[in-house]
Amino acid sequence: MESKQQKIDYDTFSLLLNERHFGMKRIKGVSRRTLTHWRKLDHLIDHREHIISGKPNFFSPIDLVWISIIADLREMSIEHSKIKGAKLGLFTPIKASNSKEYPAIEYYTMEVLQMNVAIYIILTSTNELHILNDLVYVDKLRSGEIENHTAISLNKQIKDTLTDIYKTPNFSEYNGLTTEEIQAIEIIRNKTFKYINITKENEKGEIIRLEGTEQILEESKITDLLKKGAYQNLEIKQHNGKVVCINRTIRKKLTK
User: pLDDT tens for residues 133-172?
Assistant: First the structure.
């Protein structure tokens, strides 16, 4: 079941993440010569209006995160050709909930900063790129969908480059829980759900289905819900001709 996420002001985040006001002092462990080499390889873009010797470069938070990713990939001896493939995937646009598109690296950086989730960038031995949260990552490992691979923690990159605004996620409370149990906890914490039903299998005691009744606070969302069919049951209550309550019930059968 999809729980209602905390609202992200994507436009404001995007503006701040793309402001170029950081100098070379903010880049650790990478020399000017190396950055120049990476630009020649098309890993980086030179945003200076007039490229002349001695004119300083300024970097955005997203630039810093991407440079940190390149540095870690090179430290793990990842070839430049694979880094080019990673760049293509990380800068592919993703549509956010506001119907606007943002580069994947920017979108997931917003998710880490706002939602405090763990995000991993996975490069497989067959040159596929996946960007996954920790739960999906573990599921794909268990199922064998992901085998030999290189993993980069986006949280680490953000922590290393944007230390002053990064908050480390706390995963210790999930120790010993199954994926289904963690999903149930996250739904319980979501205050928009008025009723939550958890169905367990008798023999194994595993959670097999989650059902929640969510209160919709904006009347304008009714049309979107009807168009998308994003509900199993939809309850609309009126009083004196005005809508006073909108509830939708969502059910999800959990599979391994």
Answer: 988 998 888 888 888 899 999 999 999 898 877 666 555 5
pLDDT tens profile 72-83: 999 888 999 999
- The two tokens of residue 158 are 């953000």
Q: What tokens does 213 get?
A: 């009744």
Please tell me the distance from the alpha carbon of residue 151 to that of residue 122, in angstroms, as a whole number.
5
Q: How does strand 233-239 pair with strand 119-124?
A: unpaired
User: What is this structure's pTM?
Assistant: 0.63
Q: Quick one: which of 155, 151, 118, 122 has its CA closest to 134?
A: 118
Report percent pLDDT > 70 for the chain.
73
* Helix or strand holding residue 15 (H, E): helix 10-17
Distance of CA 7 to the CA centre of its chain: 13
> How far is 212 from 1, CA to CA, in rounded Å?
8
Is residue 176 exposed (0-12), middle (13-18) or buried (19+ Cβ within 10 Å)? exposed
Query: Tokens representing 46?
Result: 């030179």
171 forms beta bridges with none
Instruction: Provide the terminal-to-terminal Cα distance of the chain, rounded to the nearest Å.
Output: 14
Contact predicate 102/13, CB 8 Å: no
Give the pairing type, strands 129-133 and 119-124. Answer: antiparallel
> Packing angle between helix 10-17 and helix 61-75, nearest 10 degrees?
70
CB 156 within 8 A of CB 118: no
Q: Can you tell me the distance from the alpha carbon of 37 to that of 33, in angstroms, rounded to the nearest whole number?
A: 6
